[in-house]
Amino acid sequence: MVVGDRIPDFLGTDQNGKEVKRSDYLGRKLVLYSYPKANTSGCTAEACSLQEHKAELAAAGYDIIGVSKDRAELQKKFADTYSLEFPLIADTKTMLLQTLGCWGEKVACGRRTIGTLRTTYLVDEDGIIEKIFTPKEIKTKIHGEQVLAAIRK
Predict the structure, then answer these.
(1) Tens of pLDDT along 25-58?
(2) Per residue in 49-71, pLDDT tens?
């Protein structure tokens, strides 16, 4: 997906077994972010940075939704361990990740693999993507500040 595209209404099922739909957030904007694996250092830093700035994002009209290929049980443990107060979609079949365009080939330490490409989408009240942070742009430890800076522009 690219800027200007509408995200799907059905996003998936979260760590608590609840269906998450875009229509659940009518009148709200979204920070929809994909991450490779719960409980890893980079993904933990990113999630905690977003959680740390959750109130500021909410004041700007944004809710946060995370998505990874992890099973719901792992997502729940991740959310509970780090007190994450937002849905974490368990996209085990990678349907949403593929639709968003953040599932594909990546290279780490010279090794090519297929997996989740760390990406963040800023989505308006109508479900339209306004901005995309690509994997190379995201700094996990300060991602909450990156998102807020982009919103304030």
Answers:
(1) 989 999 999 999 999 999 999 999 999 999 999 9
(2) 999 999 999 999 999 999 999 99
The total domain count for the chain is 1
Residue 3 belongs to a domain: no
Residue 43 is a catalytic residue? yes
Count of residues in the chain: 153
Give Cα 33 to chain centroid, integer Å: 2
pTM of the model: 0.95
Residue in 43, 48, 102, 109 annotated catalytic: 43
Q: Residue 32 belongs to a domain with what CATH number? A: 3.40.30.10
Strand order of the β-sheet with 62-68 is: 88-90, 62-68, 29-34, 119-123, 129-133
Residue 129 lies in a domain: yes
